[in-house]
Amino acid sequence: MKLQDYKTPFLLALSLLTRIPAGSFTEITDKDSGKSALLYPLVGLIIGAIIYLPVLLFPNAPSLVLAAIIVTIWAIITGGLHLDGLTDSADGWLGGLGDQERTLKIMKDPVVGAAGAIALVCFLLLKFVSVTALIESDLAWLIMVAPLLGRTMILLTFKTTPYANKQGMANTVVENLPENTSWAVLIAGAVIGFFVSFWGVLLVLIGFYFLRRLMLKRLGGCTGDTVGATVEISEMLFMLGAVLVV
């Protein structure tokens, strides 16, 4: 394995998951798309390092102010990509009334409904409170780990859950995931997570179990929106678990 072989996949992952300029791509192969998923956790760690900067730069700032800055930067650097998936999933789940086609149609609608708006407000409130609690508990460094685990959950979703839309861009990623390497990345992510916060990762895995069941029951698999929702919910559950059991 040559590091040069992962340059394009890394830039592809960076451009997909963040608003960080990653340059232009002359040619992207299906293998590059598959390899890019292996680097999602690394991109998550980069996001984590960036959102942790306010804690280092303003160590004496009030925790509420720091938390507000961190959550804002978090949303800006990701372009609200996964938050959009969260709101679309909430709208689809409530408005779909158990019907797969209706649920998918609602999730594709760019207009945010009442369920999506309520879910977004509640989620951001929980995220803000969790970040505040981590700062006040001298566990602010765990903020860096949350995005890493969140992006690792994308890989876990792709490995364990069929993709509902066979024509989607993510389906190319799923079909070209390097088998052995992807499991190695998942195991490494789990080890890191359990080492820094056993209860945080345990809560994430419990949450994923139920999210996956919902995806399979309602949609027959995952979609880009439900993967985005999984990222956001996993990040929040990790931080909640870390602060609830200190």
UniProtKB/TrEMBL annotation:
Q: What cofactors does this protein use? A: Mg(2+)
A single Gene Ontology biological process assigned to it is: cobalamin biosynthetic process
Keywords, alphabetical = Cell membrane, Cobalamin biosynthesis, Magnesium, Membrane, Transferase, Transmembrane, Transmembrane helix
Name of protein: Adenosylcobinamide-GDP ribazoletransferase
What is the E.C. number? Answer: 2.7.8.26
Q: Which GO terms describe its cellular component?
A: plasma membrane
Q: In which pathway does it act?
A: Cofactor biosynthesis; adenosylcobalamin biosynthesis; adenosylcobalamin from cob(II)yrinate a,c-diamide: step 7/7
Localisation: Cell membrane
Under HAMAP family, the record lists: CobS
Transmembrane feature ranges: 38-57, 64-83, 111-129, 141-163, 183-211
This enzyme catalyses: alpha-ribazole 5'-phosphate + adenosylcob(III)inamide-GDP = adenosylcob(III)alamin 5'-phosphate + GMP + H(+); alpha-ribazole + adenosylcob(III)inamide-GDP = adenosylcob(III)alamin + GMP + H(+)
Which domain of life does the UniProt lineage start with?
Answer: Bacteria
> What is this protein's function?
Joins adenosylcobinamide-GDP and alpha-ribazole to generate adenosylcobalamin (Ado-cobalamin). Also synthesizes adenosylcobalamin 5'-phosphate from adenosylcobinamide-GDP and alpha-ribazole 5'-phosphate.
Q: Which organism is it from?
A: Cocleimonas flava
* PANTHER family in alphabetical order: ADENOSYLCOBINAMIDE-GDP RIBAZOLETRANSFERASE
Q: How does it sit in the membrane?
A: Multi-pass membrane protein
Q: Which is one GO molecular function term here?
A: adenosylcobinamide-GDP ribazoletransferase activity
Name the protein family: Belongs to the CobS family.
